Amino acid sequence: MSRFALPTAPTTGPYVEQPKGFDLLSLPGLRRFLRWRHARLALQLPLLILAIFVLIDGFTGRQLAPRNVATTATWLHYRGLVVVALALLGNAFCAACPLMLTRGPANAVKRLLPREIRWPRALRSKWLALFLLLAVFYAYEAFDLWASPWLTAWLAVAYFAGAFAIDALFPAGTFCRYVCPLGNFNFLFASISPSQITARDPDVCRSCVGKPCLHGRETTADPGIVSSGKNYVALATVTNPNGTGNFPGCESNLFVPTMTSNMDCTSCMNCVRACPHDNVALTVRSPAWELLQRPWQSRWGTPLLVLAITMLFWGLLNAIAMVPAYFDAARALSSWLSIRNEHVLLAIMFILFSLLGVSLALGAAWLADYVAQGRASLREALHRWGYVFVALGFGFWAAHYMFHFLTGAASIYPVFQHFFAWRGVDIDPNWVIARWMPSAWMFPVSAGISGAYAFLASYVTVRIALRDFGRRAALGMWPMLLFVAALTAFQILVLAQPMEMRGTLLGPQ
Amino acid sequence: MRVRLSIASLTLIFGFAVVACRPPAEGANGARAQGNLVQVTWEIADEPRVGPTALVVHVMKDGAPVTGASVEVTGDMTHAGMVPVIANAPMTEPGMYVTQDFAFDMAGDWVLTAEIHLEDGLTVTNSTETTVARP
């Protein structure tokens, strides 16, 4: 699973097919910046400062979500900008993740331990990430995290504490790959991002001794002053040394010339800094590129594809939970089952919706295979068509998050004014500025985003059918195309509903 | 530098965690009164619905109706990013201030805050919560 096996095949040329677009690192100054030793810290500092504001206001500020930095920055701006970054660039928020600043203290604790503990084999899959994402989404609805600055701040503390504890006890990168719900959300949807780390010249990688992009390197002019003794690369042998010292490699065990996916790539750019030949590129690619490569067959496989389906339907549920029909359904379910406990009711709704979603998606995939081949297996269908759900799911998360972000993006200014006014500074927050986008634009914008990714999902469907079914592609693609069309229509119907923001499932009509 | 920064951040985070066993009391109910001799009561329809609404704020001081105060009522939804509804509430009779042009623009949970400036310079802020139904 996580250990990456180098392909045995070609001895010259590319190890695997990688995108061949424009190298973003050739933009003036970008390569130089990212090869700078403190580049990641420079990216993390703004989010660390924001996290500190989240904690201060969440714990000590006014407990009113639209007026508090914790809820506004977390549930509006962070989520909105995450999807913008994923759609237009890549996994930028993992690159700037302040949770990784716990690494220093975690390493200090690790040195006190007799030995590093291996992450349990049973947890080395994406099932845990799937479960934790479900837990976060459930908690979001059950405890109205969106309405509670205090709980939002506690969630931030839990993330920092989790990152610290996991990385103190287990190998570096364990938290990101196996645990972090935010990271795994980003990993999943970075598969539609228009950029990817690639090797500029695979033959340079082939002849590279020690593979520093993967294992890291220590480079000094004098071998006598090497501190670790591991992966020493003599300065004299390095084409482009990028200074001297220790350069960590990839904590996700990704080897640059074999990458066909953004999965598990935190965009930390360790590979860019560690490469002694300056041979790493950040290549522009089509948003559909990765979805057509079957990249997860050799890494993660089934749990990741199930995650893709569940994320699609949890995204839908996350939005449905804000429209009147959801409260009506909850009331009907409560009456039918004679259950008044809202947490139990919510759990039942999550289970029903997840089961219904997985059944519908797998049913469409199975039918597509059956129509095209006259036979089908659920596993094979999932591994063929699972990537379609990623595009569709991202479209809906993006539409929903952008709806909220555009509604109140400018509110961050009066919210910060309020932060200081609440603490005695003589400022009158200008709330009028928050209404910067006409509300009439919200539906067209969010429906447009949903439609655009439905188009991408349809394109991926057609290409997969043509790739796998040849002349029977025209038959095989229809069940999936109909699924994409039906779900998109449902998504747009949900987006067209009036919103209702309630902390109770069974309140007044 | 990175280690020091990390340790400082962690210290700050866990420091907050220690003092954050429960939400701030005054924030929990949304009220922040600066004058304890002033009594504020709200008069809201039993089942407020989306649309224009008259909110009534009764202001008393030492048991007597307050006249000549300046009252501004703000309605906030409980989701971040929602733009508040702000309206003035002029006095209609002694101690009674009624909002003009206030409308709930969405169903759901609302927090109503009255900011009251008395003629003697005292400022009082008082909040209440209500759930607004569909029109």
Question: Which labels suit this protein?
Answer:
heterodimer, A: 509 residues, mainly alpha, 3 domains, two-stranded antiparallel ribbon, B: 135 residues, alpha+beta, Immunoglobulin-like, 5-stranded antiparallel β-sheet, 4-stranded antiparallel β-sheet, 2 helices, 11 strands, 16% helix, 42% strand, globular
List the helices and strands and how they pair.
The complex is a heterodimer of chains A (509) and B (135).
Chain A: H1 30-35, H2 39-60, H3 69-88, H4 92-95, H5 103-112, H6 127-142, H7 149-169, H8 174-179, H9 181-189, E1 195-199, H10 202-207, H11 212-215, E2 217-219, E3 245-247, H12 270-274, E4 280-284, H13 302-320, H14 324-337, H15 342-373, H16 378-408, H17 412-422, H18 442-469, H19 473-496, E5 500-501
Antiparallel strand pairs in A: 1-4, 2-3
Helix pairs in contact in A: 2-3, 2-7, 3-7, 3-16, 3-17, 5-7, 6-9, 6-13, 13-15, 13-16, 15-16, 15-19, 16-18, 16-19, 18-19
Chain B: H1 2-19, H2 25-28, E1 38-43, E2 51-52, E3 56-61, E4 64-65, E5 70-77, E6 85-88, E7 91-93, E8 96-98, E9 103-104, E10 107-117, E11 123-132
Antiparallel strand pairs in B: 1-3, 2-9, 3-4, 3-8, 5-6, 5-10, 7-8, 10-11
Description of the molecule:
The complex is a heterodimer of chains A (509) and B (135). In chain A, the strands form 2 sheets. Chain A has a two-stranded antiparallel ribbon. Chain A has a two-stranded antiparallel sheet with strand order 2-3. With 509 residues, chain A is mainly α. The model of chain A has no long low-confidence stretch (mean pLDDT 89). The longest helix of chain A is centred in the C-terminal third of the chain and has 32 residues, at 342-373. Helix content of chain A is 57%, strand content 4%. With 135 residues, chain B is α+β, with helices and mostly antiparallel strands. Chain B has one domain (28-132): Immunoglobulin-like (Sandwich), CATH 2.60.40. Chain B contains 2 helices and 11 strands, in the order ααβββββββββββ. In chain B, the strands form 3 sheets. In chain B, strands 1, 3, 4, 7 and 8 form a 5-stranded antiparallel β-sheet that branches. In chain B, strands 6-5-10-11 form a 4-stranded antiparallel β-sheet, with no helix packed on it. In chain B, a hairpin with a 5-residue loop joins β10 and β11 (123-132). Chain B is globular and about 45 Å long. Chains A and B meet through α2, α3, α5, α7 and α16 of A and α1, β5 and β10 of B. β5 of chain A pairs parallel with β10 of chain B, so a sheet runs across the interface.
